[in-house]
Amino acid sequence: MAESLIFIENVNEIDLIEQYISKDVVVIAMLPAVGIELSQRGIVFENTKSLFGSDGHKETLEYSKSIVEGLRPFFKKIQMNGVQHAFEKTWIIYFRVHLNYLLASLFIINTAVKFHNPSKLIIIRNKYNNFNSLSDLVEKYGLSKGIDIQYSHKSIANEPVNSISNESFFKKDKLKIQWVFNLIFEFQLRVLPLIMNNRHASLINSDASNMPRFVERVGRHFSNYFPVYLSVKKSSLKTRIVELFKGQSFFFLSIPKYVPYHLVVIFLDKYDSCSEDIRSWLFSSNKNAMVYGVDLSNPIMTCVENELKKRMTDLYGEIISLNRILDTVKPKSVFAQNNVGIGYALGEACLKENIPGLLITHGSHVPQTDNLPSYEWNIHAHTIFNGMYPFVAIQTPWAKKFLNNQDEVISKTIDTGPLLFKKPSNNIISKLEMRSRLFGKGYAQKQIILHASSPRGWKSYKPWIYETIDEYVYNINTAIKVIEKIPNLYFCIRFLPRLGLSLKEFEISLVQSSCYGIYCEGSFDEFLMSSDLLMSYSSTTIEEALQIHIPVLQYDPDGKYEHIKGKVLSSNGINSLSTVYSVMTENDLKPSLLWWKENHSEDINRKLEWSEHSFENLDNMEWLKIMDIKC
Asked: Would you say residue 293 has pLDDT above 60?
């Protein structure tokens, strides 16, 4: 039994509780960044790996599904300028981010309290805590269970003296910036017809996810092709500017969110009506939002009436701007790789105005047999795959099977083959050259295992189908310990910094070994083509690897999830060759990798059957004829 429990989710909160630390106090670090700082201060802690697990994913998803599907009907009543689904789907996406954070955090609190049976909970308090902070949840939980509460009121050392004044100045600066961007938008909207000069204009949602490579392929099939991007990445801004001055493409620096007063009044009336329906549902029975003894009705309504209200109003403003863009561009075709917010509205506009629009997912879509992961992927598909576009690109057989299992599919499917993925390559010489350049000659002759996965922090958490950050770090560490014991293997870890885990924090979190390297920069396509095996929990990279005939090993030591149904490798069963493997326990990882190392080679890979994962002979762009794009 512990005397007290403390939960910490931000590094700057450690100063607030350091005075309460003793041998009888258990500290729970919600993210690796917090754990690293605690270790450096010599404070013993636990992370969430042992507190969450399969049950955490399962219960979070079950509660989330129950609440979301209870609220979904109320938001269908908002319809503005012929757009309805964009509001509903986008609201659900952002609402679930908030809801899943609450539910996952409560599960961890509940598990920790049951295990440690503390007599007291220490609550971190400072004037920046808000309604959805972890401290608020710990407090609500403690009060519901009759556990004593102790509050920390110590201020953060670098806390601003006059936060209200600072916030006021910040808002003024933000309004000035928005005003400048609005002026730029108006200017761009007026000069765009002159730059287009009656060329074949094609509207592109974004230049992310290899879209310029696709746009270049499309441009070869139409004379005077002229792409117009609604948004561009910061990393590619210089390239787009060069194209703009050469008259090769156009992009909008920003899409205004401004809504005229008479329209915003109408919109807010509709939104407030939805909010009242949601409030009535939540408070009609305290069971609707009662989780582990904590009533989440008030935190949910605070989110609905503040953050989500602003998001939906901003979306309405973007839709107004989008309609002006469509009136100016009069696109002959539309291509998009996401289906959230203005991206969803763009699809609705294409359907309404009979514009040939194609949605090209940049994500992975594989049918699931279990209800919970199936539900989560169905929700996820509404953001990038199953929308209102007249057409949707089917890049893999798995994607085709997935969409065939979906309800209410509006788009007409087109079997395009990979559009945003790399094509297979059998050039062994170039592969060796890439290995030497990427990893050095010392590793070029070894077998390369590439790790690429998509973990989620608690404030962007998707249950079941993605690892938590603590799970991600733990799973990589177990792989490192195994790989360093097997000769002639090199572990290439592809890492993307994220909130709660920077590169420096990730490096500190991993066990020390010479068998691996961490890689953040460079073309992922090259890393993938240089590898002999992809290891992942869940990621688009799984389907990308299969497209270029790289075998995949799916690793979930909890044994709950397979992204694609694979041959299960274990020390007890009879293993056989496959393109996709699954390792479902930590103890099976070493014998599985040894078996793979002994039984796979370039020659063996060529003889494997890959047709389940990729379409054959779809390298051309003949599918464009199905869209009937008018020149």
From this structure: yes
Cα torsion 160, 163, 169, 174 to 10°: value is 90
Q: Which residues contact 276 (CB under 8 A, 6 or more apart)?
A: none
Q: What is the length of the chain? A: 631
Write out the two tokens for 250.
């156009």
- Measured CA distances, 78 to 302, 318, 531 (Å): 20, 16, 49
- The three-state secondary structure class of 300 is helix
Confidence of residue 427 (pLDDT cuts 50, 70, 90): low
Give dist(CA 510, CA 66) in Å, integer. Answer: 37
SS3 215: helix
Torsion sign across C-alpha atoms 506, 511, 512, 515? negative
pLDDT at 425 over 90: no
Beta bridge partner(s), residue 283 = none
Tokens describing residue 593 = 């990798």
Token pair belonging to 112: 């920790």
Strand ordering across the sheet containing 4-8: 25-29, 4-8, 120-124, 148-152
pLDDT at 177 over 60: yes
pLDDT band of residue 119 (cuts 50, 70, 90) is very high
616, pLDDT greater than 80:
no
In contact, 69 and 288? CB cutoff 8 Å: no
Say how far residue 349 (Cα) sits from the centre of its chain: 25
Burial pattern 502-523, b for ≥16 Cβ within 10 A else e, equals eeebbeebeeeeebbeebeeee
Per-residue DSSP letter, 72 = G
Band of pLDDT at residue 167, cut at 50, 70 and 90: low
CA distance 47 to 144: 24
Confidence class of residue 129 from pLDDT cuts 50, 70 and 90? very low
Q: What are 518's strand-pairing partners?
A: 493
pLDDT at 424: 55
Q: From 73, 64, 69, select the one nearest 99 (Cα to Cα).
A: 64
CB–CB of 152/36 below 8 Å? no
Token pair of 44, please? 């013993």
Q: State the average pLDDT for the chain.
A: 92
**Which amino acid belongs to residue 15?**
D
- The residues near 274 (Cβ < 8 Å, ≥ 6 apart) are 74, 75, 77, 78
CA distance 599 to 423: 25
Q: Are 478 and 29 in contact (CB under 8 A)?
A: no
Dihedral, CA atoms, 154, 159, 165, 166, nearest 10 degrees? -150
Consecutive H or E run containing 76: none
At 566-577, the pLDDT tens digits run: 999 998 878 999
Cβ distance 159 to 126 under 8 Å?
yes
Round to whole Å and give the CA distance between 558 and 304.
Answer: 35
**395-419 b/e with 16+ CB inside 10 Å = b?**
bbebbbebbeeeeeeebeebebbbb
Q: What is the mean pLDDT of residues 555-579?
A: 94
Task: Provide, for the chain, the percentages of residues in helix, strand and coil under a 3-state DSSP scheme, each rounded to the nearest 5.
Answer: 50, 15, 35
- Give 345's strand partners: none
